[in-house]
Amino acid sequence: MEITAKQVKELREATGAGIMDSKKALEESQGDVEKAVRILREKGLAGAQKKMGRVASEGIVDAYIHLNNRIGVLLEVNCETDFVARNETFRCMVHDIALHIAASSPLYVSPEDIPENILEVEKEINRARAIKEGKPEQVVDKIVEGRLKKFYEEVCLLDQPFIRDPETTIGELVRETIAAVGENIVVRRFSRFQIGEALPE
């Protein structure tokens, strides 16, 4: 059965879970909201969104060096307490994200980090492309929006499908870990180094 955006919105408001988690729970429950709430609670995902507003001032810096010593990643991920910073679940997630960055080369943490001028250029390119393809004017904005979503998946860490589980984005992996450890988690920043790569201007 088809799950509507309205159903997803209602479930998110009721549980505080993320969009994709809510959609998956509704699909699993065949659209039954009560069952979907139970599924989210069993997975510990209900309420994860509410934790995302809390201050994260502890955490760790992790380093990952690829086997051939040609790619390296430094990553800072914050949490609320030193207790969680030492937690194995948290540390494993951070290391998995560092490994993902080495493999997938994101440029930014999230779409909010993309400079406005780069975003405007991307919008203009996709608008011109849609018009050149002969798309009707009334659907051009929707097409641009869809292509921007694809662009975010290419360049933004939190929007990328996780290399170990392409059905899950890095953002969803973070939210699942928030639910598991009971604290807000923020991917603060990262640097990826590759031998021979040109330095940004």
Automatic annotation (TrEMBL):
Region (Involved in Mg(2+) ion dislocation from EF-Tu) location: 81-84
GO cellular component labels: cytoplasm
Occurrences of domain Translation elongation factor EFTs/EF1B dimerisation (ranges): 31-197
Chief location of this protein within or outside the cell: cytoplasm
Molecular function terms, GO-annotated: translation elongation factor activity
UniProt keyword annotations, A-Z: Cytoplasm, Elongation factor, Protein biosynthesis
InterPro entries: EF-Ts_dimer_sf, Transl_elong_EFTs/EF1B, Transl_elong_EFTs/EF1B_dimer, Transl_elong_Ts_CS, UBA-like_sf
Top-rank taxon, per record: Bacteria
Cellular localisation: Cytoplasm
Entry function: Associates with the EF-Tu.GDP complex and induces the exchange of GDP to GTP. It remains bound to the aminoacyl-tRNA.EF-Tu.GTP complex up to the GTP hydrolysis stage on the ribosome.
Family indicated by similarity: Belongs to the EF-Ts family.
UniProt xrefs under NCBIfam families: tsf (TIGR00116)
Protein name stated in the entry: Elongation factor Ts
Annotated organism of origin: Candidatus Solincola sediminis
The gene coding this protein: tsf
